[in-house]
Amino acid sequence: MSNLGDMQSLASSISAMTSPFRNYLNDLYEKYKSFNDGAIADYIPELTLAKPEWFGICVVTTDGQMFEVGECDQLFTIQSISKAFVFGLALEDHGREYVNSKVGVEPTGEAFNSIVLDEVTNRPYNPMVNAGAIATTDLIKGNNSTERLKRLLEMFKRYTGRDHEINVPVFLSEKSTGNRNRAMSYLMLNFGMVGDKIEDTLDIYFQQCSIMVNARDLAMMSATLANGGVNPVTQERALDERYVQDVISVMLTCGMYDGSGEWLYRIGIPAKSGVGGGITAVAPGKLGVGTFSPLLDAKGNSLRGIKVCEDLSRDFGLHLFNVAKPDRDLAAWIDGSEGDSW
Ligand SMILES: NC(=O)CC[C@H](N)C(=O)O
Question: Which residues form a coiled coil (predicted)?
Fold first, then answer.
Protein backbone atom coordinates (compact mmCIF):
# COMPACT_ATOMS: atom_id res chain seq x y z
CA MET A 1 0.00 0.00 0.00
CA SER A 2 1.73 3.14 -1.15
CA ASN A 3 0.27 5.76 1.14
CA LEU A 4 -2.42 6.59 3.64
CA GLY A 5 -4.72 8.02 0.95
CA ASP A 6 -4.75 4.62 -0.79
CA MET A 7 -5.38 2.86 2.50
CA GLN A 8 -8.23 5.20 3.27
CA SER A 9 -9.91 4.85 -0.09
CA LEU A 10 -9.52 1.07 0.02
CA ALA A 11 -11.05 1.01 3.50
CA SER A 12 -13.87 3.24 2.25
CA SER A 13 -14.60 1.22 -0.82
CA ILE A 14 -14.69 -2.06 1.10
CA SER A 15 -17.10 -0.49 3.56
CA ALA A 16 -19.09 1.04 0.73
CA MET A 17 -19.63 -2.37 -0.81
CA THR A 18 -20.74 -4.15 2.31
CA SER A 19 -22.23 -1.83 4.86
CA PRO A 20 -25.79 -0.59 5.36
CA PHE A 21 -24.24 2.21 7.41
CA ARG A 22 -23.01 3.68 4.14
CA ASN A 23 -26.60 3.90 2.90
CA TYR A 24 -27.65 5.42 6.20
CA LEU A 25 -25.06 8.20 5.76
CA ASN A 26 -26.15 8.78 2.15
CA ASP A 27 -29.73 9.22 3.37
CA LEU A 28 -28.54 11.64 6.07
CA TYR A 29 -26.71 13.67 3.44
CA GLU A 30 -29.80 13.83 1.22
CA LYS A 31 -31.97 14.74 4.19
CA TYR A 32 -29.94 17.80 5.13
CA LYS A 33 -28.24 18.95 1.95
CA SER A 34 -31.01 21.42 1.13
CA PHE A 35 -31.25 22.64 4.72
CA ASN A 36 -30.07 26.18 4.15
CA ASP A 37 -30.52 27.92 7.50
CA GLY A 38 -27.59 29.78 9.04
CA ALA A 39 -24.88 32.02 7.64
CA ILE A 40 -21.23 31.85 6.61
CA ALA A 41 -18.88 33.53 9.12
CA ASP A 42 -17.99 37.02 7.93
CA TYR A 43 -16.02 38.56 10.78
CA ILE A 44 -12.87 37.11 9.23
CA PRO A 45 -13.20 38.57 5.69
CA GLU A 46 -11.50 35.66 3.93
CA LEU A 47 -14.00 33.12 5.32
CA THR A 48 -16.84 34.65 3.28
CA LEU A 49 -15.42 32.88 0.21
CA ALA A 50 -16.91 29.58 1.41
CA LYS A 51 -19.84 28.16 -0.56
CA PRO A 52 -23.10 27.54 1.32
CA GLU A 53 -23.76 24.25 -0.49
CA TRP A 54 -20.51 22.60 0.67
CA PHE A 55 -21.44 19.62 2.82
CA GLY A 56 -19.49 16.53 3.81
CA ILE A 57 -19.89 13.80 6.41
CA CYS A 58 -17.24 11.25 7.41
CA VAL A 59 -17.27 8.58 10.11
CA VAL A 60 -14.19 6.57 11.15
CA THR A 61 -14.58 3.67 13.56
CA THR A 62 -11.99 2.80 16.20
CA ASP A 63 -11.13 -0.30 14.16
CA GLY A 64 -10.22 1.91 11.22
CA GLN A 65 -13.24 1.59 8.91
CA MET A 66 -14.12 4.77 7.06
CA PHE A 67 -17.46 5.92 5.63
CA GLU A 68 -17.96 9.17 3.82
CA VAL A 69 -20.49 11.07 1.78
CA GLY A 70 -20.49 14.48 0.09
CA GLU A 71 -17.58 16.88 -0.08
CA CYS A 72 -15.00 15.14 2.08
CA ASP A 73 -12.08 16.38 -0.05
CA GLN A 74 -13.02 20.04 0.24
CA LEU A 75 -10.41 21.85 2.33
CA PHE A 76 -11.38 24.54 4.82
CA THR A 77 -9.70 26.13 7.83
CA ILE A 78 -9.82 24.18 11.07
CA GLN A 79 -10.39 27.32 13.19
CA SER A 80 -11.43 26.58 16.78
CA ILE A 81 -11.32 22.81 16.34
CA SER A 82 -7.56 23.20 16.66
CA LYS A 83 -8.06 24.34 20.26
CA ALA A 84 -8.93 20.90 21.62
CA PHE A 85 -5.84 19.31 20.08
CA VAL A 86 -3.44 22.11 21.04
CA PHE A 87 -4.74 21.74 24.60
CA GLY A 88 -3.63 18.10 24.43
CA LEU A 89 -0.14 19.12 23.30
CA ALA A 90 0.12 21.71 26.08
CA LEU A 91 -0.76 18.97 28.59
CA GLU A 92 1.97 16.78 27.17
CA ASP A 93 4.43 19.69 27.31
CA HIS A 94 3.71 20.79 30.89
CA GLY A 95 1.40 18.35 32.70
CA ARG A 96 -2.03 19.01 34.19
CA GLU A 97 -1.15 21.20 37.16
CA TYR A 98 0.81 23.82 35.29
CA VAL A 99 -1.62 24.01 32.37
CA ASN A 100 -4.50 24.33 34.80
CA SER A 101 -2.74 27.24 36.54
CA LYS A 102 -2.93 29.18 33.24
CA VAL A 103 -6.31 28.07 31.90
CA GLY A 104 -9.38 26.70 33.69
CA VAL A 105 -11.89 24.05 32.63
CA GLU A 106 -15.17 25.88 33.37
CA PRO A 107 -17.72 26.63 30.62
CA THR A 108 -18.27 30.35 30.13
CA GLY A 109 -21.85 30.50 28.86
CA GLU A 110 -20.45 33.37 26.80
CA ALA A 111 -19.58 33.68 23.12
CA PHE A 112 -16.30 32.16 21.90
CA ASN A 113 -14.67 35.57 21.53
CA SER A 114 -15.80 37.13 24.82
CA ILE A 115 -13.20 39.11 26.73
CA VAL A 116 -13.88 37.57 30.08
CA LEU A 117 -11.51 36.06 32.64
CA ASP A 118 -12.30 34.27 35.89
CA GLU A 119 -12.52 37.08 38.43
CA VAL A 120 -11.15 34.99 41.29
CA THR A 121 -8.20 33.30 39.58
CA ASN A 122 -7.70 35.72 36.63
CA ARG A 123 -7.43 32.71 34.33
CA PRO A 124 -9.27 32.39 31.05
CA TYR A 125 -12.21 30.06 31.67
CA ASN A 126 -11.35 27.17 29.38
CA PRO A 127 -9.11 26.20 26.43
CA MET A 128 -12.02 25.97 23.93
CA VAL A 129 -12.80 29.70 23.74
CA ASN A 130 -10.43 32.23 22.20
CA ALA A 131 -8.89 33.61 25.41
CA GLY A 132 -8.13 30.16 26.82
CA ALA A 133 -6.90 28.93 23.46
CA ILE A 134 -4.44 31.80 23.12
CA ALA A 135 -3.13 31.00 26.63
CA THR A 136 -2.84 27.34 25.62
CA THR A 137 -0.96 28.17 22.41
CA ASP A 138 1.39 30.32 24.49
CA LEU A 139 2.34 27.15 26.41
CA ILE A 140 3.51 25.17 23.37
CA LYS A 141 7.23 24.48 23.70
CA GLY A 142 9.88 25.30 21.09
CA ASN A 143 12.99 27.47 20.75
CA ASN A 144 11.29 29.91 18.41
CA SER A 145 7.97 30.50 16.62
CA THR A 146 8.94 28.39 13.61
CA GLU A 147 9.74 25.42 15.83
CA ARG A 148 6.54 25.82 17.86
CA LEU A 149 4.40 25.94 14.72
CA LYS A 150 6.28 22.95 13.32
CA ARG A 151 5.45 20.99 16.47
CA LEU A 152 1.78 21.88 16.06
CA LEU A 153 1.74 20.77 12.43
CA GLU A 154 3.51 17.51 13.33
CA MET A 155 0.90 16.88 16.00
CA PHE A 156 -1.97 17.36 13.52
CA LYS A 157 -0.22 14.98 11.15
CA ARG A 158 -0.16 12.31 13.84
CA TYR A 159 -3.95 12.66 14.23
CA THR A 160 -4.84 12.73 10.52
CA GLY A 161 -2.03 10.73 8.96
CA ARG A 162 -1.15 13.41 6.42
CA ASP A 163 0.64 16.75 6.05
CA HIS A 164 -1.28 19.99 6.48
CA GLU A 165 -0.80 23.42 4.99
CA ILE A 166 -1.72 26.81 6.33
CA ASN A 167 -4.15 28.96 4.37
CA VAL A 168 -2.03 32.11 4.22
CA PRO A 169 -4.80 34.51 3.07
CA VAL A 170 -6.98 33.38 6.01
CA PHE A 171 -4.04 33.74 8.40
CA LEU A 172 -3.32 37.29 7.16
CA SER A 173 -7.02 38.15 7.23
CA GLU A 174 -7.20 37.06 10.88
CA LYS A 175 -3.99 38.81 11.79
CA SER A 176 -5.13 42.13 10.32
CA THR A 177 -8.63 42.04 11.82
CA GLY A 178 -7.93 40.20 15.11
CA ASN A 179 -7.79 43.13 17.50
CA ARG A 180 -10.33 41.57 19.79
CA ASN A 181 -7.98 38.60 20.26
CA ARG A 182 -5.16 41.09 20.74
CA ALA A 183 -7.15 42.87 23.46
CA MET A 184 -7.81 39.69 25.42
CA SER A 185 -4.15 38.71 25.09
CA TYR A 186 -3.03 41.97 26.67
CA LEU A 187 -5.55 41.50 29.46
CA MET A 188 -4.08 38.04 30.09
CA LEU A 189 -0.55 39.49 29.98
CA ASN A 190 -1.62 41.92 32.69
CA PHE A 191 -2.53 38.93 34.90
CA GLY A 192 0.55 36.88 34.03
CA MET A 193 -1.44 34.22 32.17
CA VAL A 194 0.62 34.60 28.97
CA GLY A 195 4.19 35.66 28.22
CA ASP A 196 5.00 39.08 26.79
CA LYS A 197 5.63 37.94 23.20
CA ILE A 198 2.01 38.62 22.35
CA GLU A 199 2.40 39.09 18.59
CA ASP A 200 4.45 35.89 18.28
CA THR A 201 1.86 33.89 20.18
CA LEU A 202 -1.00 35.45 18.21
CA ASP A 203 0.77 34.63 14.94
CA ILE A 204 0.97 30.99 15.98
CA TYR A 205 -2.65 31.06 17.16
CA PHE A 206 -3.90 32.60 13.89
CA GLN A 207 -1.82 30.12 11.89
CA GLN A 208 -3.09 27.18 13.91
CA CYS A 209 -6.67 28.37 13.15
CA SER A 210 -5.76 28.61 9.44
CA ILE A 211 -4.60 24.99 9.06
CA MET A 212 -6.47 23.38 6.21
CA VAL A 213 -8.37 20.16 6.82
CA ASN A 214 -11.29 18.29 5.30
CA ALA A 215 -14.18 16.35 6.87
CA ARG A 216 -12.16 13.12 6.60
CA ASP A 217 -9.34 14.65 8.64
CA LEU A 218 -11.81 15.72 11.32
CA ALA A 219 -13.23 12.20 11.52
CA MET A 220 -9.71 10.75 11.82
CA MET A 221 -8.90 13.22 14.60
CA SER A 222 -11.96 12.36 16.68
CA ALA A 223 -11.59 8.65 15.93
CA THR A 224 -8.02 8.92 17.27
CA LEU A 225 -9.33 10.39 20.53
CA ALA A 226 -12.11 7.76 20.60
CA ASN A 227 -9.37 5.15 20.19
CA GLY A 228 -7.38 6.28 23.25
CA GLY A 229 -5.06 8.64 21.35
CA VAL A 230 -3.91 6.19 18.65
CA ASN A 231 -4.83 6.84 15.01
CA PRO A 232 -6.92 3.78 14.09
CA VAL A 233 -5.60 3.62 10.51
CA THR A 234 -1.88 4.42 10.86
CA GLN A 235 -1.64 3.06 14.44
CA GLU A 236 0.51 6.06 15.35
CA ARG A 237 0.02 7.57 18.80
CA ALA A 238 -1.09 11.20 18.57
CA LEU A 239 -1.70 11.95 22.26
CA ASP A 240 -0.42 10.48 25.50
CA GLU A 241 -3.13 8.13 26.81
CA ARG A 242 -3.13 9.98 30.16
CA TYR A 243 -4.47 13.16 28.58
CA VAL A 244 -7.14 11.80 26.25
CA GLN A 245 -9.73 12.00 29.01
CA ASP A 246 -8.76 15.63 29.78
CA VAL A 247 -9.26 16.70 26.18
CA ILE A 248 -12.54 14.84 25.69
CA SER A 249 -13.98 16.12 29.00
CA VAL A 250 -13.37 19.74 28.14
CA MET A 251 -14.79 19.15 24.65
CA LEU A 252 -17.94 17.82 26.32
CA THR A 253 -18.45 20.79 28.63
CA CYS A 254 -17.05 23.63 26.49
CA GLY A 255 -16.49 22.42 22.91
CA MET A 256 -19.59 24.02 21.36
CA TYR A 257 -19.04 27.40 23.10
CA ASP A 258 -22.24 28.80 24.62
CA GLY A 259 -24.17 26.03 22.85
CA SER A 260 -22.37 23.33 24.89
CA GLY A 261 -25.21 22.72 27.39
CA GLU A 262 -27.81 22.19 24.71
CA TRP A 263 -25.40 20.04 22.71
CA LEU A 264 -24.76 17.81 25.73
CA TYR A 265 -28.49 17.58 26.43
CA ARG A 266 -29.54 16.79 22.88
CA ILE A 267 -26.54 14.99 21.41
CA GLY A 268 -24.27 14.00 24.28
CA ILE A 269 -21.07 13.28 22.33
CA PRO A 270 -17.94 15.32 23.13
CA ALA A 271 -17.34 17.62 20.16
CA LYS A 272 -15.54 20.70 18.94
CA SER A 273 -16.67 23.13 16.30
CA GLY A 274 -14.96 25.88 14.32
CA VAL A 275 -16.26 28.89 12.41
CA GLY A 276 -14.82 27.43 9.18
CA GLY A 277 -17.83 25.06 9.33
CA GLY A 278 -16.25 21.91 10.76
CA ILE A 279 -17.35 19.76 13.68
CA THR A 280 -15.38 16.85 15.10
CA ALA A 281 -17.28 14.56 17.49
CA VAL A 282 -15.95 11.69 19.62
CA ALA A 283 -17.99 8.64 20.59
CA PRO A 284 -15.42 7.12 23.01
CA GLY A 285 -14.42 3.57 22.17
CA LYS A 286 -16.65 3.58 19.08
CA LEU A 287 -16.06 6.17 16.40
CA GLY A 288 -15.22 9.69 15.34
CA VAL A 289 -17.45 11.92 13.22
CA GLY A 290 -16.25 14.77 11.02
CA THR A 291 -18.75 17.10 9.37
CA PHE A 292 -18.28 20.12 7.18
CA SER A 293 -20.86 22.73 6.20
CA PRO A 294 -20.05 26.43 6.54
CA LEU A 295 -23.59 27.62 7.34
CA LEU A 296 -23.38 28.51 11.05
CA ASP A 297 -25.87 29.31 13.79
CA ALA A 298 -25.58 32.49 15.86
CA LYS A 299 -23.13 30.77 18.23
CA GLY A 300 -20.71 29.82 15.47
CA ASN A 301 -21.65 26.12 15.19
CA SER A 302 -22.35 24.43 11.83
CA LEU A 303 -26.10 23.84 11.53
CA ARG A 304 -26.01 20.86 9.16
CA GLY A 305 -23.25 19.38 11.33
CA ILE A 306 -25.45 19.68 14.42
CA LYS A 307 -28.33 17.96 12.58
CA VAL A 308 -26.11 15.10 11.40
CA CYS A 309 -24.67 14.50 14.88
CA GLU A 310 -28.13 14.67 16.42
CA ASP A 311 -29.45 11.98 14.07
CA LEU A 312 -26.40 9.74 14.52
CA SER A 313 -26.57 10.07 18.30
CA ARG A 314 -30.30 9.34 18.49
CA ASP A 315 -30.41 6.52 15.93
CA PHE A 316 -27.41 4.60 17.26
CA GLY A 317 -27.71 5.49 20.95
CA LEU A 318 -24.35 7.33 21.03
CA HIS A 319 -25.32 9.83 23.76
CA LEU A 320 -22.89 9.22 26.64
CA PHE A 321 -25.78 8.89 29.09
CA ASN A 322 -28.07 6.83 26.93
CA VAL A 323 -29.28 3.72 28.77
CA ALA A 324 -32.12 2.82 26.40
CA LYS A 325 -31.85 0.30 23.59
CA PRO A 326 -31.02 2.33 20.48
CA ASP A 327 -33.21 2.17 17.36
CA ARG A 328 -30.28 0.78 15.41
CA ASP A 329 -27.41 -1.44 16.52
CA LEU A 330 -24.22 0.28 15.36
CA ALA A 331 -22.12 -2.85 14.88
CA ALA A 332 -24.84 -4.59 12.92
CA TRP A 333 -25.32 -1.59 10.65
CA ILE A 334 -21.61 -1.29 10.05
CA ASP A 335 -20.77 -4.90 9.26
CA GLY A 336 -24.19 -5.96 8.02
CA SER A 337 -24.57 -8.70 10.67
CA GLU A 338 -27.16 -8.77 13.44
CA GLY A 339 -26.84 -9.15 17.17
CA ASP A 340 -23.28 -7.93 17.80
CA SER A 341 -22.91 -5.16 20.30
CA TRP A 342 -20.15 -2.64 20.94
N1 LIG B 1 -14.76 30.11 16.81
C2 LIG B 1 -13.72 30.02 16.01
O3 LIG B 1 -13.58 29.07 15.25
C4 LIG B 1 -12.86 31.25 16.06
C5 LIG B 1 -11.47 31.11 15.70
C6 LIG B 1 -10.94 32.38 15.05
N7 LIG B 1 -9.64 32.13 14.53
C8 LIG B 1 -10.87 33.52 16.05
O9 LIG B 1 -9.90 33.66 16.72
O10 LIG B 1 -11.79 34.28 16.17
Answer: none
Average confidence score pLDDT of the chain:
94
Q: Which among 47, 48, 77, 79 is the best mutation to test ligand 1's pocket, defined by most ligand atoms within 8 Å of the CB? A: 79
Domains 14-78+213-335 and 81-209 belong to one CATH topology: yes
Using the atom order of ligand 1, give the atom closest to the CA of residue 133. Answer: 9
ipTM (interface pTM): 0.96
- Tell me if 275 CB under 6 Å of ligand 1: yes
Name the CATH superfamily for 14-78+213-335. DD-peptidase/beta-lactamase superfamily (3.40.710.10)
* Helix, strand, coil % over all residues of the chain, rounded to 5: 50, 10, 40
According to the annotation, is 213 in a ligand binding site? no
CATH of domain 81-209: 3.40.710.10
Judge if pTM exceeds 0.80. Answer: yes
Model confidence pLDDT, tens digit, residues 88-120:
999 999 999 999 999 999 999 899 999 999 999
275 is catalytic: yes
Q: Are 282 and 240 in contact (CB under 8 A)?
A: no
Cα-Cα end-to-end distance for the chain: 29
pLDDT digits (tens, 9 = 90+) for 131-167: 999 999 999 999 999 999 999 999 999 999 999 999 9
Verify whether residue 101 is a known catalytic residue: no
83 in catalytic set:
yes
